[in-house]
Amino acid sequence: MDTLHARTATTGTAPSPSATGSLFRPLGGALGAETDALDLAQPLDAATIEAVRAAFREHHLLVIRNQTLDKERMYRFAELFGPIENHMIRLADGSKWDAVHTITNLDAAGNPVAKPFISSNYFWHTDKSFLPEPSLLTMLQAVELPPDGGDTQFADMGKAYDALPDAMKRRIEGLKSVQSLEFMRRYTGSAPPTEEDIAAAPPIAHPLVRTHPETGRKSLYIGMYSARIEGMPEEEGRGLLEELLAHATQERFLYTHKWQLGDLVFWDNRCLLHRAIANFEMGKHRRVLMRIVVKGTVPN
Ligand code: OGA
Ligand code: MN
Questions:
Q1: Considering the domain boundaries, does residue 1 fall inside one?
Q2: Dihedral sign, CA of 215, 218, 223, 228?
Q3: Residue 291 CA, ligand 2 centroid: distance in Å
Q4: What is the per-residue pLDDT across 32-42, written as a single tens digit (0 to 9) for each?
Q5: Which of 32, 280, 284, 293 has the most Cβ atoms closer than 10 angstroms to its Cβ?
Q6: Where does residue 79 fall: left (phi above 0), alpha (psi -120 to 50 degrees), or beta otherwise?
Q7: Atom of ligand 1 lying closest to residue 152 CA
Q8: CATH number for the domain including 90?
């Protein structure tokens, strides 16, 4: 779009966003849309809530700029999308997360540490795919950021599925992959789960291709928890999973979020992969995001 066009498009009286569906504008990459026209500290009317839900279905990731929500307000907004997820897995320091928690690169004394606290966040994944009912949506709000970097990257698994050759679509139809917390910890070089964690979340098979319950669109359901393919020799299954992941994370399926303070970002774990990018001086700068997760349903 030329600049004149871009400029004229934003002049004049702004139409009611919820009436026109123009509340969100697409972001640069393969997915996602943003708005700076919402204040989530105020109650939203029904039409606006529906506009947000529709944009979420269409773009899979939404960025709402300039928010300063406290825990309570963030909880209330997230709840519009479904029941809030509780967190059962213990962190390295033995604690469990609250419904609204923070992800940071800080140690117990509040100082930045060079090594990421949760190193598995730097591998492609979809949240909690090792559970019978994996996460629907994850929401982050940027509270403190490094001067630059600390990006988060997203990949559109619907587009990735659509772009597969027909022969591959036929090959993977009906297959299930086994999702395993234990495998993930090994794969990402993280501390092994405790007996208690394994007992609470034993490996579980989910469809390799899942159908979005709201849009009916098919997408690849893969990532760091995908250990093997059910009923397939281990090596062959690993090969297939790595091939699909390499295909699905090509540049043309990606959006990279460069955080601004006050960004409230939420994405659809049912049809996206995501990962943190270690592109900032982790031992020097603080990165603090508030986080809450909406619980999903059994993938089909
Ligand atoms: C998450 C996550 C990535 C990041 O919160 O689930 O993977 O960039 N975060 O912090
Ligand atoms: Mn995650």
A1: no
A2: positive
A3: 10
A4: 999 999 999 99
A5: 293
A6: alpha
A7: 8
A8: 3.60.130.10
